[in-house]
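#lab-general

N.A. 3:47 PM
ok so I finally got the sequence cleaned up, no stray characters, all 241 residues accounted for. can someone with queue access submit it? mine expired

B.Y. 3:52 PM
send it over

N.A. 3:53 PM
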Amino acid sequence: MIFPAIDLMNGKCVRLLKGRFDAKTEYDANPIDVAHGFADAGAEWMHVVDLDGAKTGHSSQAALIGDIAKQSGLKVQTGGGSRDIGTIRRLLDTGVERVVIGSLAVTQPIMVRRWLDELGPDKLVLAFDVNLDDNGVAYPAIKGWTEETETPFFEVLDGYSGTGLRTILVTDIGRDGAETGGNTKLYQTILKNYPTLDLITSGGVGTLDHVRDLKALNPYGIIIGRALYEGNFGLAEAIQC
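B.Y. 4:20 PM
back already:
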């Protein structure tokens, strides 16, 4: 399944390069119009990131994200600044289908495990943004990708065994926005070692061949952002290829 992405900053569609706020491209497009275009192209879901919330730690565009969900008719998963269960519930109440939990999934696993129990696994996606060291070992980055943790990604993921966790989103930071292709080796390893999890891939898609390479792995979903905004290919093409 293709998840077209909208990254929001000050109510506008933007894309960052490798998560850097100083490497921002702003697009002259209304987010709700963009969402309607995704729906017209055949999308079922979309991925929305509140970059202001991710930067400040406080969800700040909930109303707009709710409007996107309601007006587009798409199922929406969203993240950025969702740091307490009250904020998560408010987002779900706006019409959002799932809330994405990032840094807290790494730094506060006990709390996030409790949220999975209270809200149910269908309402949360745990997002892991990783950097690979020289040996190819993945380590999660937190706080808007500004800090790297010392615990390997797979150890963090193992900590959610038995929680009912269903959906994870994994981004190779080194490929995000670079349009050089997804990290198929990393994703293949995840799919092999965690066959019960629904994996959403993120980062690196720049061509339809990149989409085909990821589809060949049969993940649950593939997030595509910059390539759509830059006109590398159409969303309908990505869905059908």
